[in-house]
Amino acid sequence: MDAVRNPFAPGAGSQPPELAGREEIITAADTALQRVLLGRPAQSQMLMGLRGVGKTVLLNKIEQLAEEHGYFTSFIEAPEDRKLVDLLYPKIHQVLRKMSVVESAKASTHVAMRALRSFASAFKISVGDFEVSVDPEPGVADSGNLEFDLTELFLKVGDAAKAAGRGWAILIDEVQYLSPDELGALIVAIHRINQKALPVLLFGAGLPAIAALSGDAKSYSERLFIFPKVDALSHDDAAGAIRQPIEDEGETIDENLLEKIVVLTQGYPYFLQEWGYQVWNASERSPITVECIESAGKEALRRLDDGFFKVRIDRLTPKEKEYVIAMAKLGAGPFRSSEVADVLGEKLTTLGPRRAQIIAKGMIYSPAHGDIAFTVPMFDEYLKRHWIKD
Ligand SMILES: Nc1ncnc2c1ncn2[C@@H]1O[C@H](COP(=O)(O)OP(=O)(O)O)[C@@H](O)[C@H]1O
Ligand SMILES: [Mg+2]
Fold it and tell me: In the chain, which segments carry CATH 1.10.8?
């Protein structure tokens, strides 16, 4: 069928034609955004889920909602090898510039700009194009203690947002790449913001381990945040994610094929988009029927293997690859780390650093103490296809 009209959108962060099965999360975010603007308490949110389930898409959606409610927004992807402050700085600068044109917020924006300037020098942020043309405010946000200074800076920005009669939404993707110090500082800053009833909310997204991570960072994060689980779609939502976009284009799909796609993808959003995309292209005309399944399936797998899966394995060293291959030999997981050690014929303790490295790269995570699992759905099957000889 006409490839130009193909509605499906496989790709990291690509807006899907039908955002299926996420009403609850979206409603909760929308309610929180509106409450905070009224000065009512609301919880920030940390979306948790495996790769390809639609976290980035949700964060984008929440940012859009925030904008519709009149928020200033700052969207950051947590850096894997840089410091959070380096990314925050230009974002906060940009937000303050926007706030400064609101008459009622001129004075408090100026105060916040000075705090930002102090913050930049305390953390030796290379300001480059974002030089702030105000004097620093000595004694504000310049102690060099991230937790302390970030809190002060956020409070000043929150004051300015309030003076502007608006809110500020911070959206941070890939939260698992933040250091414990950075995450801890963010949590403390949000905690203070909450106590002062300032119109600021944080929405984060990351791999499932972030609940444990932020729990370690600050014990009260559980009260401060909700941790919505972003998972594979239910059977009906998965079917709808394929059927609806096709029908919106005035075409139809056979229910048998739909059923097969839901089973093969296990309802994982990324896989659904790839399958939807391929069955559309592989069919001569609508209704799209099971006849296309072989050629479409081959193409879908090829594209996933060369893209989604391959970019992940490519980041591992040979030794790290051996570790995940040993996992795949055991199945889909989760497993005990000791089982993996047995497959490799090595001691659990010797493998500790290697396991930690792979976790730091976001390839595997520990769902419970002593357990280990893939962060990429169906990764074991990929490894069996390409890395394990019978
Ligand atoms: N609710 C959904 N329904 C259908 N497709 C979705 C949904 N959420 C995300 N997708 C699709 O899944 C893929 C991965 O989304 P993304 O947000 O990048 O996932 P993550 O950030 O969790 O890795 C994209 O192609 C996107 O269009
Ligand atoms: Mg993402």
Answer: 233-312
Query: CATH says 315-386 is which class?
Result: mainly alpha
Q: What is the CA(115)–ligand 1 centre distance, in A?
A: 38
Euclidean distance between CA atoms 45 and 67, whole angstroms: 17
Torsion of CA 146, 149, 152, 154, to 10 degrees: -50
Output the six-digit token pair for 229.
Answer: 């689980």
Report which of residues 247 and 208 the model is more confident about. Answer: 247
What is the distance between the alpha carbons of residues 27 and 203, in angstroms, rounded to a whole number?
A: 14
Q: Is the pLDDT of residue 154 over 70?
A: yes
What top-level class would CATH report for the domain 233-312? mainly alpha
Phi, psi (deg, nearest 5) at residue 73: -125, 150
> What residues are in contact with ligand 1 under a 6 Å CB criterion?
9-14, 16, 18-22, 49, 51-57, 241, 269-270, 272-273
pLDDT at residue 223 in the model = 78
> Does 212 have pLDDT greater than 90?
no
Distance from residue 141's CA to the centre of ligand 1 (Å): 38
pLDDT band at residue 129 using 50, 70 and 90 as cut-offs: low
| Residue bearing the CA closest to ligand 1, atom 15 | 54
Fold category of 23-226 in CATH: Rossmann fold (3.40.50)
Band of residue 180 on the pLDDT scale cut at 50, 70, 90? confident
